Amino acid sequence: MEEDNKKKEWREYAREITSEVRFKPEVLQGIRVLDVSVANPSANITSSLLAELGAEVIKVEPPEGDPLREISPFGEFYFDGTGLDFLIESRNKKFITLNLEKEEGRELFKRMVSRSDVVIESFQPGWMDEKGIGYRQLREIRPDLIYLAFSAYGHFGPKAEELSKIPDSNLLGLANSGFMYSTKELPEAGEPYNLPTAPGFWMGYYLCALWGVCGVLLSLIHRNRTGEGQMIDVTSTEAASKITQQLIWSHAFGEPLEIGVLPLDPAVFSYSFYEIKDGYAFASGYTDANFKALITQIEAEHLMEKYPTVFDRIPLEKQRQAYKDVQEAIKKFTFKELAERMVKWGEEGKEGVAIYAKVMTSKEVLEDEFWWDKGDFTVYKDRRFSLLLPTTPWRLSETPFRLKWLGKRVGENNYQVYKELLGFGREDLEDLHKNNII
Amino acid sequence: MNYFEWVDKLFEVEKTFEKPEALENIRVLDLTVVLFGPEAGSLLAEFGAEVIRIEPPGEPPGMGDFVRSVDLWARFWKETSQALMWCQRNKYFTSINLRHPKGRDLFLRLVKKSDVVLENFVPGTMDRLGLSYRYLKEINPKLIYLSLSGYGQWGERWNWPSFDASGQAMSGASAVSGYEGRVPLKLPFYPGDLIAATAGFMCTLAALYYRDKTGKGQYIDVAQVETFPRIMGSIFSYVHLKGEDRPRMGNRDPSISPANMYKTSDGKLIVISVLTAEEFGRLCKAMERADLTEDERFATTSARLKRENADEIDRIVTEWVSKMKLDEVMELAKQYGFSASPVRNSLEIYEDEHLRARKSVWLFDDPMYGSMVAAGSPAKLSRTPGRIKWTGHPVGYHNRYVLKKLLGLTEDEIEELVREGVVVYWADFLGRRPPKDVDYENDPMYNW
Hints:
The complex is a heterodimer of chains A (438) and B (448). Chain A has 2 domains: 2-243 and 376-434, Rossmann fold (3-Layer(aba) Sandwich); 271-359, 2-Layer Sandwich (formyl-coa transferase, domain 3), CATH 3.30.1540.10. Chain A starts with a helix and ends with a helix. Chain A has helices at 2-7, 10-19, 41-52, 84-87, 103-113, 127-130, 135-141, 170-176, 203-226, 236-242, 247-253, 288-297, 303-306, 316-330, 335-347, 362-367, 369-373, 414-422, 426-434; strands at 32-35, 56-61, 78-79, 82-83, 94-97, 118-121, 146-150, 230-234, 271-276, 279-284, 355-358, 377-381, 386-390, 395-396. Chain A is built from 19 helices and 14 strands. Chain A has 438 residues and is α/β, with parallel strands linked by helices. With 448 residues, chain B is α/β, with parallel strands linked by helices. Chain B folds into 2 domains: 9-230 and 358-447, Crotonobetainyl-coa:carnitine coa-transferase, domain 1 (Rossmann fold); 259-263 and 269-342, formyl-coa transferase, domain 3 (2-Layer Sandwich). Chain B has 19 helices and 12 strands. Chain B has helices at residues 3-11, 36-46, 82-87, 101-112, 125-128, 133-139, 164-170, 191-214, 224-230, 235-242, 277-286, 301-305, 307-322, 326-337, 346-350, 353-357, 399-407, 411-419, 444-447, and strands at 27-30, 50-55, 91-95, 116-119, 144-149, 218-223, 259-263, 269-273, 339-342, 361-366, 370-375, 380-381. Chain B has a 6-stranded parallel β-sheet with strand order 3-2-1-4-5-6, with helices on both faces. A 3-stranded antiparallel β-sheet of chain B has the order 7-8-9, with helices on one face. The model of chain B has no long low-confidence stretch (mean pLDDT 97). At the A-B interface, helix 1, helix 2, helix 4, helix 8 and helix 9 of A face helix 1, helix 3, helix 6, helix 7 and helix 8 of B.
């Protein structure tokens, strides 16, 4: 059997061990997470990923529901009053309601915490503590608790209190971290194109969420070895700052890093996006041999005389001109033509490698068979609705991420969760409902 | 005690090195190059794993990782690529030729003593060398093996070359970034590499936890291109329902209104982002426009998001901010509680006392480069905080330390391996050798 396996192509073997998801164990089986975050996409995404790893995530909403349910792109699509952004990150969660503004609600919360492993919250730093349900109090009830808090500026540090009322946001993280500052076109592009620009998707929120998950997993590893819990403090500013290459520059030279020179690149040329006959494409060839391959394939060999070495291409003034020259030549081609030339060049064993990639629109991505073959998108369906969404594409062979269900309504699982955790029956829930606790 | 004083004490940043590390006693063999793989290894090292970098000898031998030749604006501060200082943290630097039978043997012996292997070669490369997961798990059944690649280990594009920028292009991330009618944005700092590296780190943590509980290892396949759609939120769901692409909208956000970057009266840039009706109410109070919360175009979140209403509220906020100084808007944000931030450059972040106190801007004394800085971990853990110890080193700098400590090799054996080109030290070349002012001949780590 093992020998047979080794005769297989690696990619077949890899596919076999990583593509089947069902019936495999879940790494976070038996870990209960209470997510009491409100209006915080990062927290919501974090608990979604933990649930996909098998944790029992109980999303605890205020009685009127998490206001995050009210957002949807352009206010256009809602299912049962819930928008797309919330819906796609409601993976595998149970949804209950509980009013933490009320003492009775907080008492119930504490009882549930005593039976839980992880609490996720996103209130203004200090709010939970003031209400007697912060980490300081909860760890008395549950000493090995892992307590994850999301905020804009964090719970500690000299400005934590002063800035505590400011909610975190995707734009805040990207602006405050310096990521945005480096994302802009050359000065001559004019405003707004030469001003800082955020990515057109929730990079700040998502990156922050990944760090929330990392924090929980690190804490679980430590808890498993020592029995100790801990508090985790995550902000989108720090998450975004972690992926920027900018601090060393300022430390070394005492000046801000200026790399906002799109469509050029601060380190190599060509490593840029261009307008082509049928849209936009990335074209790369920055070593001398690769640059030569690129300009030959786009029928502009004469540029080699003008830009013979990397030193004739990288400095900003030269790169400006070189970009214009390559742009002029490449726009005559469609992406298909470029790709064919790239492949032919390789097949003929010519020196150097030029690489092209089409700047795919969302629709083109969805029409591209590659993603569906890999299972990176799925069309979720249950008795109430159906929705296309991205799956979690990181493949663990033994304990994969998996999507089981989506989109429970506000309080939909109240009965089950309160029954299982606290032993409540329908009449108990009726009373709580009357008192606006659930 | 005041809550904030209490939390300061709980995290007690100045005592970081007195606290335990979450990944103590985890040994990682890191075969990766450039940025994507190296960052994943560095994240493990920040939380206490012993990460041994096995750098390819390069061509000619001693040149090591190609990234040592690339630098922003070719500045090469201290004769080194900042890419190396950036994405290589807390690792032990070795260089072993895995294509040489003796190098392969050294590697296999290290695998037996390790917990995690990381690699980011073209899929199939390690398999051809007999060093893929299916081979290594037989000599170390508890092994966790993380492969990082452009398009993943299988599927139609398994062997396509991939850069961060081609990943941004192929996944649709760029096409939604920037402005209509302009060339879409190529996002800076290689987010395809760095975010997927973070995902790889996260998956490795999950695998380590599972192994701690069950004794079982596993294989992990993380791809740069595939990572993007998962972090692009509702875009694909929306486009699928709508049947048409979403426009590029600059700093606007179709799911948040208002959300944009605005210019203040003193010519500064600020972002403001209002997610919920409650937050909108606070902004309106700050703008002294409580009437807007009664306006049916803005009263509910879903109404505020409608294209024409979003344009209108954006216009109102633009006008308001244009009459205010940056500090005035920030003061109101603090007071009323709406999400706002100046758009800062790297120097402002570097000098930020709050981020320094939180060790997000982490200043330290580096054994090679002296006074140095790194971005500390974004996950602040009160009990097992991440930490920065050192950054990049010359090719093969810790060869002796690793080979003697882990495999018990003698000085003579190592010298022989160096002569045979199996174990490699740096070439006398920019970005490879020790900085001029480092007395490496007398460094116990080098001499071991």
